[in-house]
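Table S4 entry, Adenylate kinase.
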Amino acid sequence: MTLPRLLIIGPQGSGKGTQGARVAEAFRIPAISTGDVFRANVKEGTPLGQQVQAIIEAGDLVPDELTGAIVRDRLAQDDAAGGFLLDGYPRNIGQVGDLDAFLEERDEPLTGVIELSVPREESIRRIPLRAAEQGRSDDNDESIAKRLSIYESETAPILDVYRERGVAFEVDGVGTLDEVFERIITALAARGIVA
Ligand code: AMP
């Protein structure tokens, strides 16, 4: 059996948060969303929240060192021993290196990288709908444009690294929630990752 040590990568509005949570639930592993961790800290006004609030609202990336420390702490907790799903991390090449170093030390290689693909126009169409539903303070036009451009310039290139390792696979993110979820589960099963 292959343990589900997974990443889900996709542009803003691709539905990766929703699908990531469903996949994690199906495998009974924690879904670790760095964006959610930051938002929760901002909401509670913690020192971390105060440190990152302006960065998030502007649509910039939080420094790698800070983000990496949060992910390492979370992955070291007991409930991640049987697998995990990371949503929104890594987001650039530096973070890929940080995660590799951590996972190599623990002899816990990634087993699947889900690339959720949606056309740019579709993700742009979906973001305002989410803003209305969730009231995210970073879903304003300027921040959205910056986040999409960071995705294209810094995050999309990390997929090449994972493709070269043979661990990444693309899933069409256009369809109903159930359709997309089934595609992910089927693709994971083809890699020996079954719930
Ligand atoms: P998300 O919910 O994944 O779209 O993340 C929301 C915001 O949190 C991003 O626009 C960044 O400001 C910050 N963030 C989340 N994940 C990361 C990461 N891996 N590296 C740096 N900043 C991040």
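The mean pLDDT is 95.
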